[in-house]
Amino acid sequence: KLGENLMQKKFLTEYTLIILATVGAFGVSRYTEGVLVMILFELGMIFEAYSTDNAKRSIESMINIRPEYATRKVRGKEFKVDPSALKIGHTIVIRPGERIPVDAVVTSGTTSIDTKALTGESIPENVWPGEKIYSGCINLSAAIEAKVTALYVDSTVSRIMEMVEDAQNQKAESETFVTRFSRAYVPIMLICSLAVMIYPPLTFSYGNWDTWIYRGLIFLIMACPTGLVMSVPIAFLGGIASAARHGIVVKGGNYLEDLAKADTFIFDKTGTLTKGVFRVTEVKAVGMSEQELLRIAAHVECHSNHPIAQSLKEAYQGEIKETKVYRMREIPGFGVNATFEGQRIYIGNKRLMERQKVECDEVRQNGTPVYVAVGDRYAGYILIADTVKEEAKSTLQYLRDRCRAVLVMLTGDTESAGREVAKELQMDYAYTNLMPEDKLEQLEDFMGLQDGGERLVCVGDGINDAPVLARADVGIAMGALGSAAAIEAADIVLMDDELPRIVDAIKIARETLRVVSQNITFAMVVKVLILILAAVGYFGMWEAIAAEVGVMFVVILNAVWVVRYQV
Predict the structure, then answer these.
(1) Confidence bin at 217 (pLDDT 50/70/90)
(2) H or E element: which one contains 32?
(3) Where are the alpha helices (DSSP H) in 406-540?
(4) What interhelical angle do 500-535 and 226-245 show, nearest 10?
(5) Is the pLDDT of residue 536 over 70?
(6) Between the chain's N and C termini, which has fewer beta carbons within 10 Å?
(7) Torsion angle of alpha carbons 14, 19, 21, 25, nearest 10°?
(8) DSSP-based three-state secondary structure for 433
(9) Would you say residue 8 has pLDDT above 50?
(10) Strands 429-431 and 138-139, how do they pair?
(11) Residues 45, 33: contact at Cβ < 8 Å?
């Protein structure tokens, strides 16, 4: 580290103080103590390096989900290949106990999948043909075949590992402050130690140079902020590791610090506060039968994975002929349109009908109305309802009680559906019928009301909400397993769909900051006390270095303990 500092022209660092103290000890013939200074300080450095490596190893072992190999099947024969050699469309075989090498879709067989490495969820998940499976998870019960849907570099495992590796290089505000503090602190302490060496022999203790030079060297040793500077990054590494154990991937220590200060939480509705499991509650057709309206809607939505599209297909229950649907186009914030049986069909919200200049019914019932137009003719609406997640109330209650948070909902859903959910969850503000750019505008308004110590958190599914997740002080993507948009846009990724993980993340963030605060306070109090005692002659050099190393050991051990923190 000293060599790195010299290369970067950083001459006045904590290492400078120790070197000057050692050289000074030799200069006043305190050879044993000079050697002891270097030995004890080096032991401290070794312990710090070990603690840092241990924290990083903890992170790596918790999320070490890289597959070692993949089994590719070609014309009935199986070959072991490197996962990076797989291409989209290849068929792979995953046997019990093997880790899934890349994101894929099951084509043959049924099994249960251990997703704990990604989600923190201990209960296995059953999968059948047609279901997605994600790299990094472990096949538990039976051999399956699957078709590759993403290259290894684009798969969930690769993106998560890259993100966590980058997280270790992100400095938190506290860490940056301590670094800046150390930069100013070292020259000040150097001047103070010189004052201790020079002023007394020139004034009230005239000519007594050996005594005061010795005390000034002790002052140099105790002034060294090594323990303080080391403990803060280790604490944040511990916080990131602790979060990873609970299926929470944090992109950097700075986001833990921001999360601990958060006082405004903005939520998306569908799939975040609600289950995102829709069911059709009413069908009103105009100029056709209800079954015909469902048939048209189910076909036009057949290529979409949106929960609303799934509910339409389930309600129809008939055979869907995808080949009859072509030129499908999705319009964010409006809906979809496609050509079906020679006619252009428009399915979406009321804004889509207004855009197409189609007059439609005004729906006041609770739920989300999906309007259907055949060409320029209104064909009716299908009312779809969602339900609030059971854990949403307890999570929001925690944010109200423990964080004194302002709770906001931004949704593109109708006013009736949005207000109903907001009322049930006792949210402070609810904004409905929002386009993606409208959500961003509302977010900017709330951020404009904040002062320097406040932070805003945005929680969404990471796909439609990518712009606001990226803009917020802290963006939290929920249930983001396999979602490229979530991993790219969010600062914190919850690998499952559980709202209580937000509470877990806040607890870990606060525990991390508590440890950082403890370390800073303890180190500064001990240093000030011993500096005073050293200046008046109550501490020898070896005692000073032992005290400095002791402080270093205590704060680093305290920081490492965050890794084992249980929420």
Answers:
(1) confident
(2) helix 31-62
(3) 415-424, 436-448, 466-471, 484-489, 500-535
(4) 170
(5) yes
(6) N
(7) 170
(8) coil
(9) no
(10) unpaired
(11) no
Task: Round to whole Å and give the CA distance between 242 and 246.
Answer: 7
**Would you name the residues annotated as active-site residues?**
268
pLDDT tens digits for range 22-45: 777 677 666 666 676 666 666 666
The residue written with tokens 């490495």 in the block is 117
CA 239, 137, 275 angle in degrees (round to 5)?
Answer: 80
Q: Of 122-126, 400-404, 470-474, where does mean pLDDT reach its minimum?
A: 122-126
Decide if 19 contacts 3 (C-beta within 8 A): no
506 three-class SS: helix
Q: Which of 147, 153, 119, 117 is nearest to 133 (CA)?
A: 147
Other Cβ atoms less than 10 A from the Cβ of 279: the count is: 13
Tell me the sheet residues that pair with 410: 431
Sign of the CA dihedral 132, 367, 435, 259? negative
Q: What number of other Cβ atoms are within 10 A of residue 439's Cβ? A: 24
Question: How far is residue 536 CA from its own chain's centroid?
Answer: 50
Is residue 563 within 8 Å of 241, Cβ to Cβ?
yes
Longest CA–CA separation in the chain, Å: 110
Give the pLDDT confidence of 400-452 residue by residue, as tens digits: 999 999 999 998 877 877 888 899 999 999 998 887 778 889 999 998 888 87
Residue pair 196/215 in contact by the 8 Å Cβ criterion = yes
- 339 DSSP β-pair partners: 326, 344
pLDDT digits (tens, 9 = 90+) for 449-465: 888 788 999 998 755 67
Using DSSP bridges, classify how beta strands 144-148 and 474-477 pair: parallel, antiparallel or unpaired: unpaired
For residue 274, what is the DSSP state? Answer: B
pLDDT higher at 277 or 173:
277
Dist CA 135 CA 479 (whole Å): 15
Question: How do strand 144-148 and strand 138-139 relate by DSSP bridges?
Answer: unpaired
- The token pair at 83 is 């996962």
The owner of tokens 């005594």 is 211
